[in-house]
Specification:
The complex is a heterodimer of chains A (112) and B (115). Chain A is mainly β. Chain A is 0% helix and 56% strand. In chain A, the strands form 2 sheets. In chain A, strands 2, 4, 5, 9, 10 and 11 form a 6-stranded mixed sheet that branches. A 5-stranded antiparallel sheet of chain A has the order 1-3-8-7-6, with no helix packed on it. In chain B, the strands form 2 sheets. In chain B, strands 2, 4, 5, 6, 9, 10 and 11 form a 7-stranded mixed sheet that branches. Classes of the chains: A mainly beta (112), B mainly beta (115).
Chain lengths: 112, 115
């Protein structure tokens, strides 16, 4: 089955700096790669996703890149703010109705 | 914005007891899921459900677990005889039928504590 590895497990950045989180996946059939932000005790919230027919997607300060050949994808947060502090999870899945396999999470701390 | 609703938000149960976790998916969604998250760990897939039957389940989803959609709106997860290691946050999710995870939405979760 699919295996998703996520690095780093913790990331501390100064406010205004960029944060990059990287994930690798094992199943070449995966074609959907969402990123979730989870605040303490709350549900995972989708912040951005990318499908395998796209190499890069951007939404304001957040961008995701996908390299299908190398089976890795990354989340980039620019101009970080204290409210970006949370745990971020990457995930991978294939086709409608199937499961998502999550990475281990990255705890991001943005220091003011 | 439509939401996936879960009840209760927190459940404490004695080891060996049965628990039922309830979810009301978004009304026009057709795929339903349960995930769990042990404290401080990643979110893990348990089961997916479509057209009134399980479409996929993980190794975690053993004979102690069952799901059903009893009345066309609720989607329940039953754990027959709870163990200490079942203590976790359980998230329900639902998605529309469509091209790849359209509208995939998580509920706010039920924190299950087995004592």
């Amino acid at each position: 089955g699919e295996n998703v590895e996520q690095h780093p497990s913790t990331l501390s950045v100064q406010e205004g700096d960029s944060a990059v989180i990287k994930c690798t996946y094992s199943d070449s059939a995966s074609n959907y790669f969402p990123w979730y932000k989870q605040e303490l005790g709350k549900r995972p919230q989708l912040i951005i996703d990318i499908r395998s027919n796209v190499g890069e997607k951007k939404d304001q300060r957040i961008a995701v890149t996908l390299n299908k050949t190398a089976k890795h994808f990354s989340l980039h947060i620019t101009e970080t703010q204290p409210e970006d502090s949370a745990v971020y999870f990457c995930a991978a899945g294939e086709a409608a109705g199937n499961k998502l396999t999550f990475g281990g999470g990255t705890r991001v701390l943005v220091k003011p | 914005e439509p939401e996936v609703t879960q009840t209760p938000s927190h459940q404490v149960t004695q080891m060996g007891q049965e628990v039922i976790l309830r979810c009301v998916p978004i009304s026009n969604h057709l795929y339903f899921y349960w995930y769990r998250q042990i404290l401080g760990q990643k979110v893990e897939f348990l089961v997916s459900f479509y057209n009134n039957e399980i479409s996929e389940k993980s190794e975690i989803f053993d004979d102690q677990f069952s799901v059903e959609r009893p009345d066309g709106s609720n989607f329940t997860l039953k754990i027959r005889s709870t163990k200490l290691e079942d203590s976790a946050m359980y998230f329900c999710a639902s998605s529309e039928l469509g091209q790849g995870y359209y509208g995939y939405t998580f509920g706010s979760g039920t924190r299950l504590t087995v004592v």
